[in-house]
Amino acid sequence: MKRSVGDLARAIQETSLYALCFLLPFSKAAVEIAFGGLLVGWVLERLDPRTRAESLWGSKRLRPLLLSLVAYLGICALSVLVSRYPSLSLRAFFSKWLEYALLMVITADVCRRPRVVRQGLTILACSALFVLIEGFTQERFGSGLFRGYRLDFFDRMTGPYENPIDLATYLMVMIPILLAHAVRHRNPLPRAALFALTGLLLLSLGRTMALGAWVGLAAGLLGIILVGDAVFRRCGLVLLVAAAVGGGWFVQRAGVLSGTLPLFSGVIRRAGPLH
Question: Cys-Cys with 171: which of 53, 58, 89, 205 at CB 3.0–4.6 Å?
Fold first, then answer.
C-alpha cells in the first residue's frame, strides 16, 4: 500500500516523541533532536491536504489557551525591543521561547492519538527504570553505570544528571505520571511492576535530599487526591503518606532542617513579642 505524506509525517513525529521520552534524562541534546523531527513531521502534515486540518488547536475548547500562548509569545517578542542585549534576546526568543511553545503545540497534536499516549507512557516507564538503575549503581559502586557521575561529589544521588536537584525535579514529575499509569493499567503484572517502580523512584527521591522536591511532590499528590476519582484518591493518599513518612526520615537523617530551624528561631527572637 502506498504511504501518503501524512503517514510519513506521523511516523517521524511519533518516533521523535518516543526518542524524547526515553533519552530526556540522559541527553541534553535530546530536546533539540526530537524537536527537529517533530517540526519536520508537522510541516509535512501541513503539506498533505488530508492531514492539514487535523489539529487540536482548531477546536473552540483550546482557542483560549492558543490565544494565551500567542499573547505570551508576543510579549516575549516585545521584550526584545527593550533589551540591553537585543541580539542575545532575539536568539533566546527563537531557540528557547518559540521552540518550547511549538514543542508543546506539536506534542499535544501527536498525543491526540490514544495509541501514542499508551506507548509514550510505556517508554517513560522504561526510561525511569534506567534512571533507577543509574541511581542505584551510583549508590552501590560510587559511580553511575551509564553516565559515570560520582556519588562522593555531592554525597547525594544524582543519577544521570549532573546534580541532585535536577534528578529530584525529574522524579517529582515522573512519580505522579507513573502512578496514574499504574492505576489505569488493566494487566495485573505490568500494573504491579509500575507500582513497584513508583515506590523505588520515591526512595530515590529521598536520596536526592531535595526538600523542595518533596514539597512539590506532596502538592501534586494532594491535587490528585482532591480532583481524582476513588481509585486515584486511594493510591494518591497511600503514596502521600509514604512520601511524608519517608521524606521526614530522610530529612531528619540528613539534617536538612538543623540549620534552618535555628535561623527561624533567631529571627523570631529579634522580632520581639507580638502585640
Answer: 205
